[in-house]
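Thread: quick sanity check before group meeting

JM: Hey all, I'm pulling together slides for Thursday and realized we never actually wrote out the predicted structure for the chain we discussed last week. Dropping the sequence here so it's in one place. If anyone has concerns about the input, flag it before I start.
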Amino acid sequence: MYQAKTARNKTLLMRRLVNHKLRGGISVSEHTSQFQDLVNQLSTTGWVLKDEEQAILLLSSLPDSWETLVVTLSNSAPNGKVTMQMVTDALMNEEARRKEAGTEQSYAFVSETNRRGGGRNGGRSRGRGRGQGQNRGNSQVRGRSQERGMSCENNTWFEGYCNYCGNYGHRKRDCRKFLQEQPQTSQNTSQEDGVTMVSLSSDACLVTHGEQEYLHVGTHDVEWVIDTAASFHATPHQHLFTSYKSGDFGAVKMGNTSFSKIVSIGDVHITTNVGCALVLKDVRHVPDLRLNLISGTALDQQGYLNRFKEGTWKLSKGSLVVARGHICGTLYKTHAKLCHPSLNAVEEEISPNLWHWRLVHLSVKGLTTLVRKERISMGKGVALDPCEHCLFGKQHRVSFSSTRRNHSELLSLVHSDVCGPIEEESLGGSRYFVTFIDDASRKVWAYCLKSKDQVFDRFRLFHAMVETETGKKLKCLRSDNGGEYTSREFSAYCAAYGIRHEKTVPRTPQHNGVAERMNRTIMEKVRCMLSMAKLPKPLWGEAVLTACYLINRSPSVPLNFEVREKKWSRRDVSYSHLKVFGCKAFAHVSKELRQKLDLKSNPCIFIGYGDEEFGYRLWDPEVKKVVRSRDVVFHENEFHGCVPIIRQQHTP
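JM (edit): ok, ran it. Output follows.
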């Protein structure tokens, strides 16, 4: 009949091929054999279908109950191209799995109507006769259209066979025979906000969000479920987030007919079951969900490739395999664990004590100011546990009152003082450090010195830097009468640049109280830092520079609790990169410095921030030197303890 290469024969064969559907009671092998016969007949007419076209037509012949497989294959196809071999293998595997499971349906469906009323099922009219009415909202299609199985969703015929009764023209979920023979089915219809729900299983359900988005949700709270149909990642666990933004982000409809709000959006850092770090972006926090959900669509948008084959899932980026999973029932699952708790950024999980340590034992008043100005976030209140390291480093006599006036213009007055000698040499052989404090902003600069005669060189560097940075002239320097400040070259330099040099009265350090108090504050913090991290004294130089770095990012009482760095630079200050001094740090070893079997991470000790250079400063206890790296993983609650020290050059 179809040997003639006429347009009519081609049309008839193509129509039969398009309308060929997988029906109940027919095996996959029979279905594919019939499909291939039609393709061969079409070929005899001169119309040869490409392999990809055949694969797409075969996928189109599957009923709705196979939609998960269709989506999975579509998303995992290399370069978006499916092949007949890929499709037939997947169909055979799915048929075998369904026979073993003894069921073809393990989801409950939630259909959400268009809330604007402009889409399908949006109004309240009802159709009659052959179903040509508008059929919107709570319509009831009557007459011959209902008897012959016309779909009530869109008022058009379903061109396929029912998987339950075998009749043509309707789906299994619309089959009257199926619905009548399911007395144990929990069928709940809720008209609230135009949502209709039919619960067929207690293991999983579909949850809709907005108009089109939906999620698969299971009942286990350990694994992560991979769903290529989900529009976004979701989790019920607040402590997983590393960034957290609360707000009103809509709601989802749960399988038990209740609503659950999306209370926040943030990022989640996890370590996959193959050991790779994976950042899930824009994860929705839905407290009433029972499972962590990974969206395949969202991963695709991040540049990852999802591959589903023979009951396994593989996530890759380029040649790197990021994660693996396996099929469990009808869901693909994977195991992953949260990255180290120090990454956690949820408010109640970042305790005031941790911020107290990060900011080198900042006072309660200082922490309260940063919280009030929304620079950092923590729990319900700033209540610190008793810190014995603060007593070891800070205990002092009751202070005297001060009535001095602050300057308002940057560099109008700079205070300076030298602290030392320190009983232990630093890593770079220093025994002193000098500080310069701008009176208007109270920002402090510190330089480590091997001897006091280096003060003049450091002052010249400081002078050139601050004038270039601010565009203002240094007008006055206040110091004590130490020989390092009264040398002939120091006086000549001040005279040449028009800097007024104020010297205090001998044996009256109160006249230079700002610099004296700053040196005391720095040394108090240094003692606390070394005590808490159990680090040896030669690391005092690194501790001094780190203390100054963090003092500049802390509120100042003379400035009415403004932050020094913000007052100086007129820019907001970031705190997200701060870590606890002396904690364990694992630096990434670049491929140029390692061989194939060498470890990719090097355990170090965190000792500071790069002020004039990028990256964190780390002490490598194995090679006994300071290294810099930007690719570091921190364990802020763990410390190496006392480590041997060998002094080196080019360090404080």
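AS: nice. Residues 103-156, 183-221, 340-349, 646-650 have pLDDT under 50 and may be disordered. The CA atoms of residues 224 and 292 lie 5 Å apart.
JM: adding both to the slides.
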